[in-house]
Amino acid sequence: EIVLTQSPGTLSLSPGERATLSCRASQSVSNNYLAWYQQKPGQAPRLLIYGASTRATGIPDRFSGSGSGTDFTLTISRLEPEDFAVYYCLQSGGSPVTFGPGTKVDIK
Amino acid sequence: EVQLLESGGGLVQPGGSLRLSCAASGFTFSSYVMTWVRQAPGGGLDWVSAIGSSGSDTYYSDPVKGRFAISRDNPRNTLYLQMNSLRADDTAVYFCARGAARQGWDYWGQGILVTVSS
Predict the structure, then answer these.
(1) Mind listing the pLDDT tens digit of every residue in chain A (108 residues)?
(2) How far is CA A58 from CA A74, A92, B23, B114, in A?
(3) Which of A39, A47, A89, B23 could serve as a FRET partner for B44 with CA atoms 20 to 30 Å apart?
(4) Residues of A with CB below 8 A from B47's CB?
(5) Residue from the list A39, A96, A100 with its beta carbon closest to the beta carbon of B61
């Protein structure tokens, strides 16, 4: 099973700042099948990025994904008030599909 | 508009059974892989099960294998999760989601709470 580690656990930033979230896999994620989801309290997760770097439909271009192999990054170029949430990475290159523990982005 | 609506959750005793439903609308249900994901209270997300578009291929996480069964009724546009031998650690909000993990789960239901407790 591929274990995903996300860092930091919590990121305290101000609106307008840049957020850089890391997701590291215990082994290489085949075909870069790595996705990022955003979740706000009481809501279902929302797909942001799949295939490590492809933005999902309707996702603003301030969200970008990068990386390959075992190291992946989600970058939010300028935080908007609605971006404060928990972010999860998910790998589906290995079986079973596994999530990271999440990074909480909160308001400084 | 794509909509997914879960139902069937609630309180059940350990060892009991429950069947979740996910009613889909706004898209061609029979063309999509469908998935169940759960989230324990205050916890992270866990993939539970997936089913191919025709229903012939099913997949389960290790914690639920042999206890849960995923199925679908394409003419009724409904996804199911039959949960047997429930344990306290199955307590979670259960979400249904559209699609295969590799292409991303692009639509989700609002989630339904299952509580396993005596």
Answers:
(1) 999 999 999 999 999 999 999 999 999 999 999 999 999 999 999 999 999 999 999 999 999 999 999 999 999 999 999 999 999 999 999 989 999 999 999 999
(2) 17, 22, 24, 31
(3) B23
(4) 90, 96-99
(5) A96
